[in-house]
Amino acid sequence: MNFFYVLLLIVSISLSACQIIDSVPKSETPVVKTEDITQNVNEFNNKLSSLVKQLLKSELYDHKKKATLMTTFVRADTLTYKKTDHPLQYLGHYLSDGIKTELVHRESKVIEHKSSSAVSISKDASYFLSRNIDELKGIDGAEYIIAGTFVEMENGAMVNVEVIEISTSEVVSAAREFFPNTLFWPAKSVVSRNGMLYREDK
């Protein structure tokens, strides 16, 4: 009789173990650890720095005395920005904001064209930046515009940047850099569970 209970206990434990193993999501594989994220951020920042260093090499670009205005980088084939389910979806915004930050760190004179004429206050927050054309101050004072395009490739995107003198439309400086897909993940394909990021393979 004791042997029967021992056998029953062993079978029950085995079945419980199988159930736990089966409950682990098979379609999700941990892909990103903290050190991976740090490495990607560092690589992205290095590529941004490379772009800015290339731009500042030109003696025609007087970035410290004459004001520069940044625009959002767009796809080279359409010259527009569109939302797509792609790792590079927000690349145009990342590049624009990142280069603007790099320029300011190098004491460049940069104008924020999205600044409003007044602070807007809502129930939950205060706002100064806007995309409403009627609220913007305009671009008075800017002498250069930085415009950029990117071409999607199999493993990433080739980014091209131009510094254009507004009064003459002359390109006074230019730069190019390749950004791999591995630096980005589509937001809806990554989930967080137990402090670890997972990619859902669909």
Walk me through this protein's architecture.
About 6% of the residues have low confidence. Helices cover 30% and strands 33% of the residues. With 202 residues, it is α/β, with parallel strands linked by helices.
Largest sheet data: 6 strands, mixed
The amount of beta strand, in percent, is 25-35%
Q: Name the overall outline.
A: globular
By helix and strand content, what is the structural category?
A: alpha/beta
Order of helices and strands: HEHEEHEEEEEEEE
Short description:
The chain is an alpha/beta fold. It is built from three helices and eleven strands, in the order H-E-H-E-E-H-E-E-E-E-E-E-E-E. Helices cover 30% and strands 33% of the residues.
Which key features would you list for this structure?
202 residues, alpha/beta, 6-stranded mixed sheet, 3-stranded antiparallel sheet, 3 helices, 11 strands, 33% strand, globular
Give the helices and strands, then pairings:
Elements: H1 2-23, E1 28-32, H2 34-56, E2 67-70, E3 74-75, H3 91-105, E4 110-111, E5 115-121, E6 126-129, E7 142-153, E8 156-165, E9 170-180, E10 190-193, E11 196-200
Parallel strand pairs: 2-4, 2-7, 3-7
Antiparallel strand pairs: 1-11, 5-6, 7-8, 8-9, 10-11
